[in-house]
UniProtKB/TrEMBL annotation, chain B:
Keywords: ATP-binding, Nucleotide-binding, Translocase, Transport. Residues 6-223 form the ABC transporter domain. Belongs to the ABC transporter superfamily. Gene3D superfamilies: P-loop containing nucleotide triphosphate hydrolases. One of its GO terms (molecular function) is ATP binding. The gene is ssuB1_2. Pfam families: ABC_tran. This is Aliphatic sulfonates import ATP-binding protein SsuB 1. InterPro entries: AAA+_ATPase, ABC_transporter-like_ATP-bd, ABC_transporter-like_CS, ABC_transporter_ATP-bind, P-loop_NTPase.
Amino acid sequence: MTSKSKTLPAPTEQRWKPGVDSAAWKRRGKGLVLPVVALLLLEVVVRLGWVPPYQLPAPSDIFITLSDLAAGPLYKHIGASVARVLLGFAIGAGLALLAAAWVGLSREAEAYLEPTFAGLRAIPSLAWVPLLLLWLGIDETSKVVLIAIGAFFPVYLNGVAAIRNIDRKLVEVGQMYGFSSAQLAKRILLPAALPGLFTGLRSGMSLAWMFLVAAELIAATKGLGYLLTDGRETSRPDIVLAAIIVLALLGKLCDGVLAKLETHFLDWRDAFTGEAKP
Amino acid sequence: MSEALLRVRVERKNFAAVTVLRNIDLQLQPREVVTLLGPSGCGKSTLLRIAAGLEREFNGAVSRGGQGGEVAFVFQEPRLMPWLTVAQNIGFSAGGQYDQAWVQQLIREVGLEGFADALPKQLSGGMAQRVALARGLYSRPRVLLLDEPFSAVDAFTRMKLQDLLLQLAEHHGIALLLVTHDVDEALYLSDRVLVMGGSQSSSLRLELPVALARPRDRRDARLAALKGEALTELQLAHVI
Ligand SMILES: Nc1ncnc2c1ncn2[C@@H]1O[C@H](COP(=O)(O)OP(=O)(O)O)[C@@H](O)[C@H]1O
Ligand SMILES: [Mg+2]
Protein backbone atom coordinates (compact mmCIF):
# COMPACT_ATOMS: atom_id res chain seq x y z
CA MET A 1 0.00 0.00 0.00
CA THR A 2 2.87 2.30 0.59
CA SER A 3 4.25 1.37 -2.78
CA LYS A 4 5.49 4.10 -5.04
CA SER A 5 5.85 3.80 -8.75
CA LYS A 6 9.28 4.61 -10.04
CA THR A 7 9.91 5.87 -13.51
CA LEU A 8 10.47 3.18 -16.07
CA PRO A 9 12.94 3.09 -18.90
CA ALA A 10 9.87 2.67 -21.10
CA PRO A 11 7.69 5.72 -21.87
CA THR A 12 6.98 7.41 -18.58
CA GLU A 13 3.46 8.48 -17.91
CA GLN A 14 2.72 12.14 -17.56
CA ARG A 15 1.94 13.01 -13.99
CA TRP A 16 0.00 15.96 -12.82
CA LYS A 17 2.18 17.85 -10.37
CA PRO A 18 0.31 20.70 -8.77
CA GLY A 19 2.14 23.99 -8.82
CA VAL A 20 5.04 22.78 -10.90
CA ASP A 21 4.40 22.76 -14.61
CA SER A 22 2.74 25.58 -16.47
CA ALA A 23 0.08 23.29 -17.95
CA ALA A 24 -1.33 22.81 -14.46
CA TRP A 25 -1.53 26.55 -13.94
CA LYS A 26 -3.23 26.95 -17.28
CA ARG A 27 -5.87 24.44 -16.21
CA ARG A 28 -6.43 26.32 -12.98
CA GLY A 29 -6.67 29.59 -14.87
CA LYS A 30 -9.46 28.15 -17.00
CA GLY A 31 -11.36 27.18 -13.89
CA LEU A 32 -11.11 30.72 -12.52
CA VAL A 33 -12.61 32.43 -15.57
CA LEU A 34 -16.27 31.84 -14.75
CA PRO A 35 -16.22 32.90 -11.06
CA VAL A 36 -14.12 36.00 -11.74
CA VAL A 37 -16.44 37.15 -14.52
CA ALA A 38 -19.48 36.49 -12.33
CA LEU A 39 -18.00 38.49 -9.44
CA LEU A 40 -17.14 41.45 -11.66
CA LEU A 41 -20.61 41.38 -13.16
CA LEU A 42 -22.21 41.34 -9.71
CA GLU A 43 -20.06 44.21 -8.54
CA VAL A 44 -21.09 46.30 -11.55
CA VAL A 45 -24.78 45.39 -11.24
CA VAL A 46 -24.87 46.35 -7.55
CA ARG A 47 -22.80 49.51 -7.98
CA LEU A 48 -25.09 50.68 -10.78
CA GLY A 49 -28.00 50.25 -8.36
CA TRP A 50 -29.85 47.65 -10.45
CA VAL A 51 -30.08 45.42 -7.36
CA PRO A 52 -30.53 46.93 -3.89
CA PRO A 53 -27.51 46.17 -1.66
CA TYR A 54 -29.73 45.08 1.28
CA GLN A 55 -30.74 42.11 -0.89
CA LEU A 56 -27.48 41.41 -2.66
CA PRO A 57 -24.40 43.17 -1.33
CA ALA A 58 -21.52 43.86 -3.70
CA PRO A 59 -18.69 41.33 -3.63
CA SER A 60 -16.35 44.02 -2.34
CA ASP A 61 -18.71 44.68 0.60
CA ILE A 62 -18.80 40.96 1.38
CA PHE A 63 -15.04 40.96 1.36
CA ILE A 64 -14.95 43.87 3.80
CA THR A 65 -17.46 42.13 6.08
CA LEU A 66 -15.33 39.00 5.89
CA SER A 67 -12.18 40.83 6.91
CA ASP A 68 -14.07 42.59 9.74
CA LEU A 69 -15.27 39.20 10.96
CA ALA A 70 -11.78 37.79 10.59
CA ALA A 71 -10.50 40.51 12.88
CA GLY A 72 -13.16 39.60 15.45
CA PRO A 73 -15.32 36.57 16.18
CA LEU A 74 -14.86 34.56 12.97
CA TYR A 75 -12.28 32.16 14.37
CA LYS A 76 -14.46 31.33 17.34
CA HIS A 77 -17.25 30.32 14.94
CA ILE A 78 -14.92 28.40 12.66
CA GLY A 79 -13.36 26.61 15.60
CA ALA A 80 -16.76 25.58 16.98
CA SER A 81 -17.99 24.31 13.61
CA VAL A 82 -14.81 22.48 12.67
CA ALA A 83 -14.67 20.77 16.05
CA ARG A 84 -18.27 19.57 15.67
CA VAL A 85 -17.75 18.34 12.12
CA LEU A 86 -14.54 16.50 12.88
CA LEU A 87 -15.90 14.86 16.01
CA GLY A 88 -19.20 13.90 14.37
CA PHE A 89 -17.47 12.66 11.25
CA ALA A 90 -14.94 10.63 13.22
CA ILE A 91 -17.69 8.93 15.22
CA GLY A 92 -20.05 8.38 12.28
CA ALA A 93 -17.39 7.25 9.81
CA GLY A 94 -15.64 5.07 12.39
CA LEU A 95 -18.82 3.21 13.30
CA ALA A 96 -19.74 2.98 9.62
CA LEU A 97 -16.40 1.38 8.73
CA LEU A 98 -16.84 -1.19 11.49
CA ALA A 99 -20.40 -1.96 10.42
CA ALA A 100 -19.39 -2.13 6.76
CA ALA A 101 -16.54 -4.53 7.51
CA TRP A 102 -18.84 -6.70 9.57
CA VAL A 103 -21.70 -6.80 7.05
CA GLY A 104 -19.35 -6.93 4.05
CA LEU A 105 -17.34 -9.87 5.32
CA SER A 106 -20.08 -12.00 6.81
CA ARG A 107 -23.26 -13.15 5.13
CA GLU A 108 -24.58 -14.00 8.56
CA ALA A 109 -24.05 -10.46 9.83
CA GLU A 110 -25.61 -9.14 6.65
CA ALA A 111 -28.73 -11.24 7.22
CA TYR A 112 -29.09 -9.85 10.74
CA LEU A 113 -28.06 -6.23 10.23
CA GLU A 114 -28.72 -5.18 6.66
CA PRO A 115 -32.55 -5.00 6.88
CA THR A 116 -32.28 -2.76 9.96
CA PHE A 117 -29.78 -0.47 8.29
CA ALA A 118 -31.92 -0.36 5.16
CA GLY A 119 -34.89 0.67 7.30
CA LEU A 120 -32.95 3.34 9.18
CA ARG A 121 -31.58 4.64 5.92
CA ALA A 122 -35.10 5.18 4.64
CA ILE A 123 -35.61 7.82 7.34
CA PRO A 124 -34.52 11.24 6.09
CA SER A 125 -31.77 11.95 8.57
CA LEU A 126 -33.08 15.40 9.50
CA ALA A 127 -36.23 13.75 10.84
CA TRP A 128 -34.09 12.71 13.81
CA VAL A 129 -33.64 16.33 14.86
CA PRO A 130 -36.68 16.65 17.16
CA LEU A 131 -35.87 13.36 18.86
CA LEU A 132 -32.23 14.29 19.31
CA LEU A 133 -33.26 17.60 20.83
CA LEU A 134 -35.69 15.84 23.18
CA TRP A 135 -33.22 13.20 24.22
CA LEU A 136 -29.93 15.04 24.21
CA GLY A 137 -30.89 18.67 24.69
CA ILE A 138 -29.76 21.55 22.54
CA ASP A 139 -26.10 21.54 23.44
CA GLU A 140 -23.12 19.93 21.71
CA THR A 141 -24.13 16.27 22.01
CA SER A 142 -27.21 16.48 19.82
CA LYS A 143 -25.28 18.34 17.11
CA VAL A 144 -22.41 15.88 17.08
CA VAL A 145 -24.81 12.93 16.98
CA LEU A 146 -26.72 14.43 14.08
CA ILE A 147 -23.51 14.95 12.13
CA ALA A 148 -22.45 11.40 12.93
CA ILE A 149 -25.76 10.06 11.61
CA GLY A 150 -25.27 12.10 8.44
CA ALA A 151 -21.76 10.79 7.88
CA PHE A 152 -22.63 7.19 8.74
CA PHE A 153 -24.69 6.07 5.77
CA PRO A 154 -22.54 7.10 2.81
CA VAL A 155 -19.49 5.59 4.46
CA TYR A 156 -21.37 2.42 5.38
CA LEU A 157 -22.97 1.92 1.94
CA ASN A 158 -19.77 2.59 0.01
CA GLY A 159 -17.84 0.41 2.43
CA VAL A 160 -20.09 -2.61 1.96
CA ALA A 161 -20.10 -2.11 -1.80
CA ALA A 162 -16.32 -1.77 -1.81
CA ILE A 163 -15.88 -5.05 0.04
CA ARG A 164 -18.41 -6.86 -2.12
CA ASN A 165 -16.78 -5.57 -5.30
CA ILE A 166 -13.38 -7.01 -4.44
CA ASP A 167 -12.19 -9.25 -7.23
CA ARG A 168 -12.80 -12.84 -6.11
CA LYS A 169 -9.79 -13.86 -8.16
CA LEU A 170 -7.44 -11.79 -6.03
CA VAL A 171 -8.92 -13.25 -2.86
CA GLU A 172 -8.30 -16.71 -4.27
CA VAL A 173 -4.59 -15.92 -4.56
CA GLY A 174 -4.54 -15.36 -0.80
CA GLN A 175 -6.50 -18.54 -0.15
CA MET A 176 -4.01 -20.43 -2.27
CA TYR A 177 -1.22 -19.24 0.01
CA GLY A 178 -3.26 -20.36 2.99
CA PHE A 179 -3.63 -16.86 4.43
CA SER A 180 -5.47 -16.54 7.72
CA SER A 181 -8.53 -14.29 7.84
CA ALA A 182 -6.45 -11.52 9.39
CA GLN A 183 -3.77 -11.79 6.69
CA LEU A 184 -6.43 -11.89 4.00
CA ALA A 185 -8.07 -8.76 5.42
CA LYS A 186 -4.84 -6.82 5.79
CA ARG A 187 -3.05 -7.81 2.61
CA ILE A 188 -5.86 -8.20 0.09
CA LEU A 189 -9.28 -7.07 1.29
CA LEU A 190 -8.30 -3.71 2.79
CA PRO A 191 -6.11 -2.47 -0.07
CA ALA A 192 -8.58 -3.76 -2.65
CA ALA A 193 -11.50 -2.03 -0.91
CA LEU A 194 -9.62 1.22 -0.33
CA PRO A 195 -10.83 3.06 -3.46
CA GLY A 196 -14.46 2.48 -2.48
CA LEU A 197 -13.76 3.38 1.13
CA PHE A 198 -12.32 6.72 0.07
CA THR A 199 -15.37 7.45 -2.06
CA GLY A 200 -17.50 6.81 1.02
CA LEU A 201 -15.34 8.91 3.32
CA ARG A 202 -15.44 11.85 0.95
CA SER A 203 -19.20 11.83 0.54
CA GLY A 204 -19.52 11.24 4.29
CA MET A 205 -17.42 14.34 4.90
CA SER A 206 -19.56 16.48 2.62
CA LEU A 207 -22.71 15.25 4.36
CA ALA A 208 -21.12 16.00 7.73
CA TRP A 209 -20.83 19.66 6.70
CA MET A 210 -24.40 19.67 5.48
CA PHE A 211 -25.68 18.31 8.77
CA LEU A 212 -23.51 20.72 10.69
CA VAL A 213 -25.30 23.63 9.06
CA ALA A 214 -28.67 22.00 9.77
CA ALA A 215 -27.74 21.46 13.41
CA GLU A 216 -26.43 24.98 13.89
CA LEU A 217 -29.36 26.62 12.11
CA ILE A 218 -31.72 24.99 14.59
CA ALA A 219 -30.04 25.94 17.79
CA ALA A 220 -26.58 27.32 18.39
CA THR A 221 -24.85 30.26 19.99
CA LYS A 222 -21.71 29.93 17.98
CA GLY A 223 -20.61 28.34 14.76
CA LEU A 224 -20.98 29.19 11.09
CA GLY A 225 -24.61 28.06 11.04
CA TYR A 226 -25.26 30.49 13.87
CA LEU A 227 -23.61 33.22 11.77
CA LEU A 228 -26.06 32.41 8.97
CA THR A 229 -29.07 32.75 11.30
CA ASP A 230 -27.61 35.87 12.84
CA GLY A 231 -27.15 37.47 9.42
CA ARG A 232 -30.74 36.72 8.48
CA GLU A 233 -32.19 38.02 11.76
CA THR A 234 -30.22 41.26 11.53
CA SER A 235 -30.94 41.63 7.78
CA ARG A 236 -27.27 41.41 6.90
CA PRO A 237 -26.97 39.40 3.65
CA ASP A 238 -23.28 40.25 3.62
CA ILE A 239 -22.80 38.25 6.84
CA VAL A 240 -24.84 35.36 5.41
CA LEU A 241 -22.77 35.34 2.25
CA ALA A 242 -19.52 35.66 4.18
CA ALA A 243 -20.51 32.61 6.25
CA ILE A 244 -21.41 30.72 3.09
CA ILE A 245 -18.02 31.51 1.61
CA VAL A 246 -16.24 30.30 4.75
CA LEU A 247 -18.33 27.12 4.74
CA ALA A 248 -17.45 26.48 1.12
CA LEU A 249 -13.75 27.03 1.78
CA LEU A 250 -13.74 24.73 4.80
CA GLY A 251 -15.69 22.04 2.98
CA LYS A 252 -13.28 22.26 0.09
CA LEU A 253 -10.32 22.13 2.46
CA CYS A 254 -11.59 18.96 4.17
CA ASP A 255 -12.32 17.31 0.84
CA GLY A 256 -8.93 18.40 -0.43
CA VAL A 257 -7.19 16.71 2.48
CA LEU A 258 -9.09 13.47 1.77
CA ALA A 259 -8.37 13.79 -1.95
CA LYS A 260 -4.66 14.22 -1.20
CA LEU A 261 -4.70 11.10 0.95
CA GLU A 262 -6.59 9.31 -1.78
CA THR A 263 -4.04 10.09 -4.49
CA HIS A 264 -1.28 9.20 -2.07
CA PHE A 265 -2.67 5.77 -1.21
CA LEU A 266 -4.31 4.97 -4.53
CA ASP A 267 -1.46 5.90 -6.82
CA TRP A 268 -1.60 2.36 -8.19
CA ARG A 269 -5.05 2.68 -9.71
CA ASP A 270 -5.19 2.25 -13.45
CA ALA A 271 -8.05 4.65 -13.90
CA PHE A 272 -9.21 6.85 -16.74
CA THR A 273 -8.02 10.36 -15.97
CA GLY A 274 -10.29 12.28 -18.30
CA GLU A 275 -8.47 12.45 -21.58
CA ALA A 276 -7.57 9.70 -24.03
CA LYS A 277 -4.19 11.18 -24.88
CA PRO A 278 -2.50 14.10 -23.16
CA MET B 1 10.27 -44.26 -11.95
CA SER B 2 10.53 -42.96 -8.43
CA GLU B 3 7.60 -42.17 -6.19
CA ALA B 4 5.18 -39.68 -7.73
CA LEU B 5 5.47 -36.06 -6.61
CA LEU B 6 1.76 -35.59 -6.92
CA ARG B 7 -1.08 -38.01 -7.25
CA VAL B 8 -4.65 -36.92 -7.84
CA ARG B 9 -7.48 -39.42 -7.71
CA VAL B 10 -10.95 -38.15 -8.40
CA GLU B 11 -13.73 -40.71 -8.24
CA ARG B 12 -16.35 -38.06 -8.69
CA LYS B 13 -16.61 -34.28 -8.65
CA ASN B 14 -20.05 -32.71 -8.69
CA PHE B 15 -21.21 -29.16 -9.09
CA ALA B 16 -24.72 -29.30 -7.64
CA ALA B 17 -26.36 -32.20 -9.50
CA VAL B 18 -23.91 -32.18 -12.39
CA THR B 19 -20.98 -34.56 -12.34
CA VAL B 20 -18.07 -32.80 -13.98
CA LEU B 21 -15.23 -35.27 -13.40
CA ARG B 22 -15.28 -39.02 -12.99
CA ASN B 23 -12.66 -41.74 -12.50
CA ILE B 24 -9.48 -39.79 -12.86
CA ASP B 25 -6.12 -40.97 -11.64
CA LEU B 26 -3.22 -38.73 -12.45
CA GLN B 27 0.39 -38.88 -11.36
CA LEU B 28 3.23 -36.46 -11.77
CA GLN B 29 6.83 -37.63 -11.53
CA PRO B 30 9.71 -35.37 -10.51
CA ARG B 31 10.75 -33.00 -13.31
CA GLU B 32 8.01 -34.27 -15.55
CA VAL B 33 6.00 -31.96 -17.80
CA VAL B 34 2.41 -33.07 -18.23
CA THR B 35 -0.37 -31.21 -19.99
CA LEU B 36 -4.10 -31.61 -19.62
CA LEU B 37 -5.69 -31.06 -23.01
CA GLY B 38 -9.38 -30.77 -23.62
CA PRO B 39 -12.21 -28.62 -24.90
CA SER B 40 -13.51 -25.65 -22.97
CA GLY B 41 -15.78 -26.55 -20.08
CA CYS B 42 -14.62 -30.15 -19.76
CA GLY B 43 -13.33 -29.61 -16.24
CA LYS B 44 -9.64 -28.97 -16.73
CA SER B 45 -9.57 -26.03 -14.37
CA THR B 46 -11.61 -27.94 -11.82
CA LEU B 47 -9.13 -30.83 -11.90
CA LEU B 48 -6.19 -28.46 -11.51
CA ARG B 49 -7.89 -26.66 -8.62
CA ILE B 50 -8.42 -30.01 -6.95
CA ALA B 51 -4.73 -30.78 -7.43
CA ALA B 52 -3.85 -27.40 -5.91
CA GLY B 53 -6.09 -27.93 -2.92
CA LEU B 54 -8.26 -24.96 -3.86
CA GLU B 55 -11.23 -27.27 -4.43
CA ARG B 56 -11.90 -29.57 -1.49
CA GLU B 57 -15.37 -30.97 -2.11
CA PHE B 58 -14.91 -34.08 -4.21
CA ASN B 59 -14.72 -37.84 -3.85
CA GLY B 60 -11.12 -38.93 -4.07
CA ALA B 61 -7.77 -37.94 -2.71
CA VAL B 62 -4.76 -35.79 -3.46
CA SER B 63 -1.43 -36.98 -2.15
CA ARG B 64 1.89 -35.27 -2.34
CA GLY B 65 4.81 -37.67 -2.29
CA GLY B 66 8.31 -37.41 -0.99
CA GLN B 67 9.54 -34.59 1.18
CA GLY B 68 6.29 -32.65 1.16
CA GLY B 69 7.03 -30.89 -2.10
CA GLU B 70 5.53 -27.39 -2.29
CA VAL B 71 2.91 -26.88 -4.94
CA ALA B 72 2.41 -23.49 -6.56
CA PHE B 73 -0.30 -22.30 -8.91
CA VAL B 74 -0.22 -19.92 -11.85
CA PHE B 75 -3.63 -18.69 -12.94
CA GLN B 76 -4.94 -17.98 -16.40
CA GLU B 77 -4.83 -14.26 -15.65
CA PRO B 78 -1.77 -12.79 -13.91
CA ARG B 79 -3.83 -11.87 -10.82
CA LEU B 80 -1.24 -9.43 -9.57
CA MET B 81 -2.13 -7.15 -6.67
CA PRO B 82 -2.47 -3.80 -8.45
CA TRP B 83 -1.29 -1.86 -5.40
CA LEU B 84 2.02 -3.72 -5.11
CA THR B 85 5.16 -3.34 -7.19
CA VAL B 86 6.54 -6.16 -9.29
CA ALA B 87 9.00 -7.13 -6.55
CA GLN B 88 6.34 -7.00 -3.84
CA ASN B 89 4.01 -9.11 -5.97
CA ILE B 90 6.67 -11.75 -6.49
CA GLY B 91 7.28 -11.97 -2.74
CA PHE B 92 3.59 -11.62 -1.95
CA SER B 93 3.27 -14.91 -0.07
CA ALA B 94 5.88 -13.74 2.44
CA GLY B 95 4.31 -10.32 2.94
CA GLY B 96 6.45 -7.31 3.81
CA GLN B 97 9.58 -9.25 4.73
CA TYR B 98 10.21 -11.16 1.53
CA ASP B 99 13.61 -12.44 0.52
CA GLN B 100 14.97 -9.51 -1.52
CA ALA B 101 17.89 -11.35 -3.10
CA TRP B 102 15.72 -14.25 -4.22
CA VAL B 103 13.14 -11.86 -5.67
CA GLN B 104 15.87 -9.98 -7.55
CA GLN B 105 17.15 -13.26 -8.95
CA LEU B 106 13.66 -14.29 -10.07
CA ILE B 107 13.15 -10.89 -11.71
CA ARG B 108 16.34 -11.47 -13.70
CA GLU B 109 15.36 -15.02 -14.57
CA VAL B 110 12.01 -14.00 -16.01
CA GLY B 111 13.66 -11.15 -17.91
CA LEU B 112 12.18 -8.16 -16.08
CA GLU B 113 15.36 -6.35 -15.01
CA GLY B 114 14.63 -2.73 -14.24
CA PHE B 115 10.96 -3.33 -13.51
CA ALA B 116 11.25 -4.32 -9.85
CA ASP B 117 9.53 -1.11 -8.72
CA ALA B 118 7.00 -0.88 -11.54
CA LEU B 119 3.30 -1.20 -10.79
CA PRO B 120 1.15 -3.80 -12.59
CA LYS B 121 -0.65 -1.07 -14.55
CA GLN B 122 2.66 -0.27 -16.25
CA LEU B 123 3.14 -3.82 -17.54
CA SER B 124 2.01 -5.48 -20.76
CA GLY B 125 0.05 -8.73 -20.56
CA GLY B 126 3.12 -10.83 -21.28
CA MET B 127 5.18 -8.99 -18.67
CA ALA B 128 2.44 -9.41 -16.09
CA GLN B 129 2.35 -13.14 -16.77
CA ARG B 130 6.14 -13.25 -16.28
CA VAL B 131 5.63 -11.68 -12.87
CA ALA B 132 2.97 -14.29 -12.13
CA LEU B 133 5.46 -17.04 -13.08
CA ALA B 134 8.09 -15.53 -10.80
CA ARG B 135 5.53 -15.32 -7.98
CA GLY B 136 4.79 -19.01 -8.54
CA LEU B 137 8.50 -19.80 -8.24
CA TYR B 138 9.05 -17.70 -5.12
CA SER B 139 8.07 -20.49 -2.71
CA ARG B 140 10.59 -22.83 -4.42
CA PRO B 141 7.89 -25.33 -5.37
CA ARG B 142 8.57 -28.82 -6.65
CA VAL B 143 5.37 -28.77 -8.65
CA LEU B 144 3.99 -25.87 -10.61
CA LEU B 145 0.35 -26.06 -11.68
CA LEU B 146 -0.58 -23.74 -14.53
CA ASP B 147 -4.10 -23.09 -15.81
CA GLU B 148 -3.95 -21.95 -19.45
CA PRO B 149 -1.22 -19.53 -18.47
CA PHE B 150 -0.54 -18.20 -21.96
CA SER B 151 -4.01 -18.18 -23.48
CA ALA B 152 -4.45 -14.43 -23.04
CA VAL B 153 -1.24 -13.31 -24.79
CA ASP B 154 -0.42 -13.00 -28.47
CA ALA B 155 1.19 -15.85 -30.40
CA PHE B 156 4.72 -14.40 -30.36
CA THR B 157 4.67 -13.69 -26.64
CA ARG B 158 3.21 -17.12 -26.05
CA MET B 159 6.14 -18.86 -27.76
CA LYS B 160 8.60 -16.82 -25.74
CA LEU B 161 6.80 -17.57 -22.50
CA GLN B 162 6.62 -21.28 -23.31
CA ASP B 163 10.38 -21.38 -23.75
CA LEU B 164 10.87 -19.35 -20.60
CA LEU B 165 8.67 -21.76 -18.65
CA LEU B 166 10.58 -24.82 -19.85
CA GLN B 167 13.88 -23.16 -19.07
CA LEU B 168 12.77 -22.23 -15.54
CA ALA B 169 11.36 -25.69 -14.88
CA GLU B 170 14.60 -27.28 -16.07
CA HIS B 171 16.76 -24.88 -14.09
CA HIS B 172 14.88 -25.25 -10.81
CA GLY B 173 14.00 -28.93 -11.24
CA ILE B 174 10.26 -28.34 -11.12
CA ALA B 175 7.58 -30.66 -12.44
CA LEU B 176 4.84 -28.96 -14.46
CA LEU B 177 1.18 -29.80 -14.75
CA LEU B 178 -0.26 -27.45 -17.32
CA VAL B 179 -3.78 -27.03 -18.64
CA THR B 180 -4.25 -26.02 -22.24
CA HIS B 181 -6.70 -26.27 -25.11
CA ASP B 182 -3.94 -25.81 -27.67
CA VAL B 183 -2.67 -29.06 -29.24
CA ASP B 184 0.57 -27.44 -30.45
CA GLU B 185 1.34 -26.04 -27.03
CA ALA B 186 0.65 -29.42 -25.40
CA LEU B 187 2.93 -31.30 -27.77
CA TYR B 188 5.71 -28.73 -27.70
CA LEU B 189 5.87 -28.58 -23.92
CA SER B 190 5.10 -31.98 -22.51
CA ASP B 191 6.46 -35.41 -21.84
CA ARG B 192 2.91 -36.68 -21.67
CA VAL B 193 -0.33 -35.19 -22.94
CA LEU B 194 -3.45 -36.29 -21.09
CA VAL B 195 -6.57 -35.77 -23.11
CA MET B 196 -9.74 -35.02 -21.20
CA GLY B 197 -13.23 -35.38 -22.53
CA GLY B 198 -16.51 -37.19 -22.26
CA SER B 199 -20.08 -36.67 -23.18
CA GLN B 200 -21.49 -36.08 -19.70
CA SER B 201 -18.66 -36.06 -17.22
CA SER B 202 -15.01 -35.92 -18.17
CA SER B 203 -12.30 -38.42 -17.52
CA LEU B 204 -8.84 -38.93 -18.95
CA ARG B 205 -9.62 -40.33 -22.37
CA LEU B 206 -6.15 -41.03 -23.63
CA GLU B 207 -2.50 -40.46 -22.97
CA LEU B 208 -0.11 -39.32 -25.67
CA PRO B 209 3.56 -39.66 -24.80
CA VAL B 210 5.89 -37.19 -26.52
CA ALA B 211 9.28 -38.84 -26.49
CA LEU B 212 11.31 -35.98 -27.95
CA ALA B 213 14.37 -34.51 -26.29
CA ARG B 214 14.46 -30.85 -25.28
CA PRO B 215 15.07 -28.25 -26.45
CA ARG B 216 12.61 -29.01 -29.19
CA ASP B 217 12.26 -27.30 -32.51
CA ARG B 218 8.77 -26.07 -33.27
CA ARG B 219 9.38 -26.93 -36.94
CA ASP B 220 10.39 -30.50 -36.10
CA ALA B 221 8.63 -32.86 -38.53
CA ARG B 222 8.16 -35.34 -35.69
CA LEU B 223 6.07 -32.79 -33.80
CA ALA B 224 3.95 -32.29 -36.90
CA ALA B 225 3.54 -36.05 -37.27
CA LEU B 226 2.60 -36.35 -33.59
CA LYS B 227 0.04 -33.61 -34.06
CA GLY B 228 -1.49 -35.56 -36.93
CA GLU B 229 -1.68 -38.68 -34.79
CA ALA B 230 -3.04 -36.73 -31.88
CA LEU B 231 -5.80 -35.21 -33.98
CA THR B 232 -6.75 -38.62 -35.30
CA GLU B 233 -6.89 -40.06 -31.83
CA LEU B 234 -8.85 -37.10 -30.56
CA GLN B 235 -11.37 -37.71 -33.29
CA LEU B 236 -11.54 -41.42 -32.54
CA ALA B 237 -12.05 -40.63 -28.87
CA HIS B 238 -14.85 -38.24 -29.87
CA VAL B 239 -13.12 -35.38 -28.11
CA ILE B 240 -13.26 -33.27 -31.27
N1 LIG C 1 -17.83 -23.01 -9.06
C1 LIG C 1 -18.59 -23.67 -9.97
N2 LIG C 1 -19.91 -23.86 -9.72
C2 LIG C 1 -20.69 -24.53 -10.59
N3 LIG C 1 -20.26 -25.04 -11.75
C3 LIG C 1 -18.96 -24.88 -12.06
C4 LIG C 1 -18.06 -24.18 -11.19
N4 LIG C 1 -16.83 -24.18 -11.75
C5 LIG C 1 -16.96 -24.84 -12.92
N5 LIG C 1 -18.23 -25.27 -13.10
C6 LIG C 1 -18.71 -26.05 -14.25
O1 LIG C 1 -17.89 -27.17 -14.37
C7 LIG C 1 -17.58 -27.41 -15.73
C8 LIG C 1 -16.08 -27.45 -15.91
O2 LIG C 1 -15.54 -26.16 -15.70
P1 LIG C 1 -13.98 -25.87 -15.83
O3 LIG C 1 -13.26 -26.79 -14.94
O4 LIG C 1 -13.80 -24.42 -15.60
O5 LIG C 1 -13.71 -26.23 -17.35
P2 LIG C 1 -12.46 -25.87 -18.27
O6 LIG C 1 -11.41 -25.29 -17.42
O7 LIG C 1 -12.06 -27.18 -18.88
O8 LIG C 1 -12.94 -24.94 -19.32
C9 LIG C 1 -18.25 -26.32 -16.53
O9 LIG C 1 -19.43 -26.86 -17.08
C10 LIG C 1 -18.58 -25.27 -15.52
O10 LIG C 1 -19.77 -24.64 -15.88
MG1 LIG D 1 -10.53 -23.32 -17.47
